[in-house]
Amino acid sequence: MAENILQFKDVTVEFKLRRGVLRAVDKASLDVQRGEILGIVGESGSGKSTLASTVLNIVSVPGEISGGQILYNGKDILKLSDEEIRKYRWSDVAMVFQAAQNSMNPVIRIKEQFLETAAAHNGDNISERDVLAKARRLMEYVRLEPDQVLSSYPHQLSGGMKQRTIIAMSLLLDPRLLILDEPTTALDVITQAYIMDILKAIHADLGITMVFLTHDVSIMGKIADRMAVMYAGRVVELGTVDDVFYNSLHPYTKGLIHAAPSLTDDVSKRRPIPGAPPDLINPPEGCRFAPRCGFYNTGFCNGEEQGKLIEVKPGHFTTCLEWERMDA
Ligand SMILES: Nc1ncnc2c1ncn2[C@@H]1O[C@H](COP(=O)(O)OP(=O)(O)OP(=O)(O)O)[C@@H](O)[C@H]1O
């Protein structure tokens, strides 16, 4: 059986807002296997980024992790001391944030950004010389010209170059798990494909575990081994990419796949999912997808769900009670 590097167990994250409590992640459970590339897909607002931020315990204010556990190599990261978590960030787990290319410090050169990262998170005190030697090697890894890029300011680089620089920086302290939040979304298709290629090469070379978050389901087949589908704060389906694509066990997954643009498909065959995701302050009882689901109220589904992922076929999980009718 595959060994888990990371486990989310019933993780709940709440934002206490004026309007009420918004539960961005609601009892999400998910295992990440050592060495795999796991994709998490879901519409904007489904809770992907919030779930990912729990891995580093950096949920943004006014959010808080109000329930569940996040286990890294079996250890509850919510119980780490400040010193332990500082070392754990970047050296065990690194994250490339959404639109990270816009968040680089504009007034310092790339090489100083590498040095600052090492200084902030590296307990073993590698010398500046070693940090820069490593930065050069990593730049080659992401197919950038080291001397030119390391002495540049962020504005001197294209969007794709900045994103590759950030991927290189995330590898500086040899993390075992890399989380990438929409790493190619702001980029053109050619640059996207190039970055995907680089990520696959890094994965093959370093055997690093990757968690890849995106709203674009069509990317999954190009990069991931397994994929999880999130809807309204919950993980509703999980399995190998092939199983989830070709034998979907949740109507939301089917909807997402049929709504996805494809370069080869006839655009007229694209079918958007009707309606909109629920308000997470007052979500519907039972299955949150029911109001948008073609199976709801057709005689056999009354909107109940299993409440958690159930393994209905080996390695393939769903929350939908009607999974057997999914081919109908
Ligand atoms: N700082 C915050 N304050 C209030 N609500 C927030 C905050 N951050 C996220 N949320 C809410 O939590 C829910 C989940 O958002 P999240 O960003 O995790 O989704 P996502 O699937 O990653 O979408 P996207 O790709 O658009 O970021 C949304 O309803 C969002 O409005």
Verbal overview:
The chain has 328 residues and is an alpha/beta fold. It folds into two domains: 4-92 and 175-325, P-loop containing nucleotide triphosphate hydrolases (Rossmann fold, 3-Layer(aba) Sandwich); 98-174, no CATH class. It is 31% helix and 24% strand. The chain has helices at residues 48-55, 82-91, 110-121, 128-141, 146-150, 159-170, 189-206, 217-223, 241-246, 251-259; strands spanning 4-17, 20-33, 37-41, 63-72, 75-76, 93-96, 177-181, 209-214, 226-231, 234-240, 310-313, 316-318. The strands form two sheets. An eight-stranded mixed sheet has the order 6-7-8-3-9-10-12-11, sandwiched between helices. Strands 2-1-4-5 form a four-stranded antiparallel sheet. Strand 1 and strand 2 form a beta hairpin. Helix 3 (110-121) packs across helix 4 and helix 4 (128-141) crosses helix 6. The chain starts with a strand and ends in a 10-residue tail after the last strand. The chain binds adenosine-5'-triphosphate. The site of adenosine-5'-triphosphate (ATP) has 16 residues, from strand 1, strand 2 and helix 1. One of its GO terms (biological process) is peptide transport. Belongs to the ABC transporter superfamily.
Features:
single chain, 328 residues, alpha/beta, Rossmann fold, 2 domains, eight-stranded mixed β-sheet, four-stranded antiparallel β-sheet, 10 helices, 12 strands, 31% helix, globular, binds adenosine-5'-triphosphate
